[in-house]
Amino acid sequence: MTFGNRVFTQVDRPSAELVARLAEIPTPDLADSMKRAGVVSGGIQAIYRPMRRVAGSAVTINLLDGSFFNMLKIGMEMTRPGDMLVIAGRANINYALLGGNVCKGLKHRGVVGCVVDGAVRDVAQIRDLDFPVHARGLAINAGPTVGPGEVNVPVAFGHCVVFPGDVVVADEEGIVVVPPRYAEEILERVAKLQAMFDSIQPALERGEVTNIASIRQTLMESGCAFIDAPYSLEANHNGQAAKESMIE
Predict the structure, then answer these.
(1) What is the pLDDT of residue 127?
(2) Could you write out the three-class secondary structure of the chain?
(3) What is the CATH number of the domain that holds 80?
(4) The pLDDT value given to residue 142
(5) What confidence score (pLDDT) does residue 8 get?
(6) Preceding omega of 180 cis (within 30 degrees of 0)
(7) Can you give the pLDDT at residue 234?
(8) Pairwise CA distance, residues 53 & 72, whole Å
(9) Rounded to an integer, what distance in angstroms lies between the CA atom of residue 231 and that of residue 58?
(10) Contact 21/169 with Cβ under 8 angstroms?
(11) Which of 1, 66, 86, 244 falls between 20 and 30 A from 42, CA-CA?
(12) What confidence score (pLDDT) does residue 242 get?
């Protein structure tokens, strides 16, 4: 039985045009538009800053026991220009799963970036390459080289499931995974969200708190009291608070 030790050599990739459209969107806007589905744990961060936003089609590597070298190399061989390498290292930060030389090779293959649920090393070299990498941590030691793993299977990655061919968008604020079959719907939601943000800019520039009337109403309906007086320890203790006024 090959389960747990498999390499799928083909990936159903989305169009480059779709990936490029998603790459234009900040990850918080995608997260809001997806109702927080597809959002990777904030514990996986950009390893250097500033870091440009990137998006690519996922090639996944599942490292079952932390042994990385052989499966990592095979996973690299499966990549094409425009891909994002997704390494599911089970949050192990005791040793590095990626370093500067591997990143150099990935960049020259046309890979747009790499996200790692585990540790990496050689930050200065990776920064100099201008190769975007997100990871859970940093480690100096390299891990074991030989062991089981899988390539291009669904992986658990930072509280999210990533399928081969999903669009992974990563920037300084985080990582979002977009299933291609829902991308057009999500892009429509993003457009509406960004139009709403544009519409409130004049109010923000006047220093106004937006939607305050409806927020007050909702709070009062929930039983919240608005008290038209300063807080007083004595009055609060004696139960003789100043006149309560339900402010609309």
Answers:
(1) 98
(2) CCCCCEECCCCCCCCHHHHHHHHCCCHHHHHHHCCCCCECCCCCEECCCCCCCEEEEEEEEEECCCCCHHHHHHHHHCCCCCEEEEEEEEEEEEEECCCHHHHHHHHHHCCCEEEEEEEECCHHHHHHHCCCEEEEEECCCECCCCCCEEECCCEECCCCEECCCCEEEEECCEEEEECHHHHHHHHHHHHHHHHHHHHCHHHHHCCCCCCHHHHHHHHHHCCCCCECCCCCHHHHHHCCCCCECCCC
(3) 3.50.30.40
(4) 84
(5) 93
(6) no
(7) 64
(8) 24
(9) 55
(10) no
(11) 66
(12) 45
* Residues in CB range of 141: below 8 A, 6 or more apart: 94, 95, 96
CB–CB of 60/155 below 8 Å?
yes
30 located within any domain: yes
Q: Are 244 and 227 in contact (CB under 8 A)?
A: yes
Q: What is the CA radius of gyration of the chain?
A: 24
Rounded to 10°, the helix 100-109/69-77 angle is: 20
Q: In the chain, how many domains are there?
A: 1
Residue 237's pLDDT is 56
What pLDDT, on a 0 to 100 scale, did the predictor assign at position 1?
54
CB-hemisphere CA count at 13 Å for 29?
A: 19
- Enumerate the β-bridge partners of residue 133: 114
For the chain, list residues with pLDDT below 50. Answer: 239-248
Q: What is the model's pLDDT at position 64?
A: 75
CB burial readout 185-214, b (16+ within 10 A) else e: ebbebbeebeeeeeeeeeeeeeeeeeeeee
Q: Residue 238 domain-assigned?
A: no
Q: How far apart are the C-alpha atoms of 221 and 244, rounded to whole Å?
A: 15
> Structural domain of residue 11, as residue ranges?
6-182
